[in-house]
Amino acid sequence: MAIFSSIKNLFKHSAVYGVGHILTRSINFLLMPLFTNLFPRDEYGVVGIMFAYIAILTIVYTYGLDAAFFRFYILKEELSDRRDIFSTSFITILLTSICFSALLFISSDTIVTWVFSEEVRSLSIDLALLVKFAAGILMFDALTFLPFLILRAEQRSIPFVVFKFINVLINVGCNVLFLIVLDFGIEGVFLANLIASTLTFFIMSPLLARYLQSTFSLSLLRELFAFGIPYLPSTLAVVIMDTIDRPFLERLASVEEAGLYNAGVKLGMFMALFVTAFRFAWHPFFLSTLKQKDAKAVFAKVFTYVLLACAGVFIVLSVFIEDIVRFPLPGFTLVGKEFWACTTVVPVLMLAYILYAAYLNFLIGVYLHKKTKYLPFITVSGMVGNLITNALLIPVIGMMGAAWARFVAYFIMAVSLYVVNKKLYPVDYEWKRIIKLCLITAMVFFVGMAEFIQSVFMFKLFVVLSFPVLLYIMRFFESNEINRLKMLWVSRKK
Fold it and tell me: Is residue 404 part of a domain?
């Protein structure tokens, strides 16, 4: 029962953090009908490329302090010690963010020449203005970074969700105002993000004032950097793997192909949202669970259940993806007709995110034994695999090459980290059950993709519902799990 209680606690926080992250990422879905029905592929490609660079630079702005902040903050019990950690971290990020953003603002014209191809520079878009907006977005996002980490570290998931929701409301509202009412073009997308980031920072300032003090410890900063800096190339490599494919597509295919692929990535984010929700709760969970006698048994179960949940999401989205993009809205469809072909990359992207979920499960040993030195080698290896695969496949199969490049990268990372974790903190994962799960998932997926199944909605629904039935028939579930589900069902009926 202790195992199930621990897992229940993990998934409870995953669910709440998931809501918060979904609210943030829901901007992509809420605005997707607007963007794909309003912008042509080339302009939407520019939006995707710009946000790819913003994502990469966000990691540079925070340089691995999230991992260090978590570890040191959670392990300190005195409020004064926690305030010292927060203040030292915040003051450092504040000073460097101002410097980085000032450099971007001043050098915007030069950056446009370096970053964008002649094809993109020929479009009727003020690219230098987009760079300036990006400089502001990056600075204010970096300043709200640590307050959000405090909420996660203290497992204050409800305030976390509230602040995320406020950010989404501001962002969506400003996008609608600038794009529909004022007709600003894609410049309005980045102005809306800048306003949302700025206002979110000021709204969170009371939380900031509660923890911020005038103390700054150079010795503490050295400790934070010693632990966190090894995470920088690691985290940066992961973000590059998730974003560099759009600039690659712009250079090796076309900006229109980048725009089409960008729409596919947004749809694949359904799986990414689920995995990220798990990631938010996973780090605090396994750090606290390590003290339990049955910790390894808990971790083994978690891995199985996470893959089971991912498989369920994969099946549902893969089978119904065509219906999702064609979902009718007043006057248009959920995804603009010009972008419907993006669905071909979605299953591959979701498989890549499942591999990332596996990678997260294998982080335990590295954290426990402070062996963060392994992470740069693992993630950089994945990034190199990603870059090589992008370069080889995009000229041949276009955006499908970009999708498979992401899969290859996460496969390299997951396998490499598993080997390392097996030496540092061996866990007897339930591989027989996992293999059975993979085989059943593959079978249901390929049946669901058959043309005669795809042509009839009820056939697709039947295929999806057959997934849990097949798991039961093939004895994937253990007797204690079935009994617990029965108990939950009975208690709900009462």
Answer: yes
